[in-house]
Amino acid sequence: MPAPLAITLGDPAGIGPEAILGAWARLRAEGRAPQAFVVGGPALLRACVERLGIDCPIVPIAEPAEAVFASAAGLPVLAGLDGLPTPGCPSQAGARLALASLQWGVRFALSGLAAGLVTAPIAKSALADIGWNYPGQTEFLADACGRPYRDAVMMLAGPSLRTVPLTVHVALAEVPGLISAELITHKARIVAEGLRRDFNIVAPRLAIAALNPHAGENGQFGDEDARIIAPAVAALQAEGIAAVGPVPGDALFTPRARHGYDAALCMYHDQALIPIKALDFDEGVNVTLGLPIIRTSPDHGTAFDIAGKGLADPGAMAAAIRLAAGMAQARGIS
Predict the structure, then answer these.
(1) Rounded to the nearest 5°, which phi and psi values hold at 131?
(2) Which residues contact 259 (CB under 8 A, 6 or more apart)?
(3) Which CATH number is 5-148+292-331's, of 3.40.718.10, 3.40.30.10, 3.40.640.10, 3.30.420.130?
(4) Domain spans of the chain?
(5) Quick one: DSSP state of residue 283?
(6) Distance between CA 90 and CA 132 in Å, rounded?
(7) Distance (Å, rounded) from C-alpha 320 to C-alpha 276?
(8) Is the pLDDT of residue 120 over 90?
């Protein structure tokens, strides 16, 4: 019997719970709901169903394996881990629930009891209040999997674009000092392998973004593109990886350019996230490459301001669930 996907609750004060319910209801209505279960919160989710009128029956289960059979009746939810719904009002109790759901979810994925992990949004500040010391869920998962942070590569994937920020949560002023040929080649190899393993792309094509306007304009606007990025691209090409660059950022995301690569590696956070959110906001998925487990997440935050109001679009969560199921199938574990 194939293992189900594990879906974590995220912060219960955010839109995670209603996004999970809405996504599951949508996928089930479309006949596309994969085998999955939510890691905790049966009473919390049932209260959310009643408050928002979402057509998603909650089926408590005692262990992940029960999800395969329970899904015929509704959304399987692991019992024994629960809390109160507090939409828009983050708390330490909610942060503890979010963390416990994440911790159990990664254990299930590492043990093979879950085929992969879909994580709902967390509030880093709320988690910091209870001792959380990670920049985000990606770094936590790398640590839990026994991998260095640099091996956990964030890729944003949507219907029309895939992007990878080579530097993530750092000040823009720090980016030039963090970019190196070794960083580019290391992460590019992980991306290429991830595209082969999880997306069935036999010969991945990578576009490497420039750092400076016009790729430095022969040194007029900085020398990092010629000194660091171009040699890294040449090294990747010598290894047999189909890489091009440095490509100026203002040309990299045009419709014609996007047809020429399978993923774009960007030098900093906003260079990667602005285009994916502009093109695929409601279907953008955060995928973690380089780990032994599958992990996806909707590419949006907790949105406390609209939580509990029935305004959250479940499209990104549905896309994250679908993509995790597709990755599991590509790996032959579903």
Answers:
(1) 100, 5
(2) none
(3) 3.40.718.10
(4) 5-148+292-331, 153-276
(5) G
(6) 15
(7) 14
(8) yes
Q: Which CATH number fits domain 153-276: 3.10.129.10, 2.30.40.10, 3.40.718.10, 3.40.190.170?
A: 3.40.718.10
pLDDT number for residue 1: 67
pLDDT tens by residue, 70-115: 999 999 999 999 998 899 999 999 999 999 999 999 999 999 999 9
Strand-pairing partners, residue 36, are 5
Q: Which residues contact 158 (CB under 8 A, 6 or more apart)?
A: 276, 279, 280, 283, 284, 285, 299, 319
CA torsion, ordered 253, 149, 105, 19, to nearest 10 deg: -30
The pTM of this model reads 0.92
Q: Find tokens 């949004």 and name the residue.
A: 121
Contacts with 240 (C-beta within 8 Å, 6 or more apart), sequence order: none
The answer for 218, left when phi > 0, alpha when psi is -120 to 50, beta otherwise, is left
- pLDDT tens string 191-237: 999 999 999 999 999 999 999 999 878 888 889 999 999 999 999 99
What's the CA gap between 20 and 7, in Å, rounded? 8
Mean pLDDT of the chain: 94
* Pairing state between β 162-165 and 153-157: antiparallel
